[in-house]
Amino acid sequence: MAEPGAGALRLADLAVRVGRRAWRSLPAGVRKDLEDRVFYVIFQKTRVENDAYGWRPPSAPPSDRDGS
User: Fold this and answer.
1) What is the separation of C-alpha 50 from the centre of its chain, rounded to a whole number of angstroms?
2) Residue 31: which of 43, 49, 42, 19 has the closest Cα?
3) What is the DSSP annotation of the chain?
């Protein structure tokens, strides 16, 4: 009996193979432009999520550490 999900794995493998073949069939300039665009989108997404616009840590009151 076939393992559950074997059909899904075959379908995913087929999709990857078709995608790779289609990617290689694109002209080099188009591939580079698409790669640049994908990089730009990922860069902007992570930059915006990692920058805390307007957020500042709460200022802690000065502590009395001189031992008195």
Assistant:
1) 13
2) 19
3) -PPTTHHHHHHHHHHHHHHHHHHHHS-HHHHHHHHHHHHHHHHHHHHHHHS-TT--PPPPPPP--S--
Angle among Cα 45, 47, 48 to the nearest 5 degrees reads 70
Task: Tell whether the torsion through CA atoms of 41, 46, 51 and 52 is positive or negative.
Answer: positive
Q: What is the pLDDT of residues 5-61, one digit of tens each?
A: 889 999 999 999 999 999 999 999 999 999 999 999 988 887 766 666 666 667 777
CA 37 – CA 39 distance, rounded (Å): 5
Whether 31 contacts 23, CB under 8 Å: yes
